[in-house]
Amino acid sequence: MKSGPVVLSCLALALLACAERQARTIAAEQPHDAQLTCFQIASERASIRRTVASYEADRRQQDERNAMSIAAAPFNPMNLMLMDVGDAATRETAAYERRLVRLGELARSKGCPDD
């Protein structure tokens, strides 16, 4: 009977390990693009650049945590279940980069100054 909580804890950790963060992608082209002013385009581009830089920093930190989990696995195999091997941040970054390209094209077509 005492092994019940241990089994449940292990099962919960296993299920948690299978849960992957879902990518929140954005469309490169938005319905309101034609109404954007040069200032709005520049602001959105700056915001996207900050977001992408944050994702890249998070991805580096996660890579370090994954490496530490692998190194500690011989002593505690449960660490392997805590690794994040999903590609949500990579897909989000790619979507933001496509949006940046679209905003750059839009800025050029409107004659906006380079930001």
Structural features, described:
The chain is 64% helix and 0% strand. The protein has 3 helices and no strands. The mean pLDDT is 80.
Order of helices and strands: HHH
Kindly name the structural category: mainly alpha
Distance between the termini: 66 Å
- Uncertain spans, ≥5 residues at pLDDT below 50? none
Shape: elongated
Rounded radius of gyration (Å)? 21 Å
Would you count the extended β strands for me? 0
Helix amount = 55-70%
Largest sheet: none
What is the typical, i.e. mean, pLDDT?
80
Number of helices: 3
Residues in β-strands, percent: under 5%
Quick synopsis:
By secondary structure, the protein is mainly α. It has a domain of 80 residues. It contains 3 helices and no strands.
Topology:
Layout: H1 3-18, H2 38-72, H3 88-110
Give structural attributes.
115 residues, mainly alpha
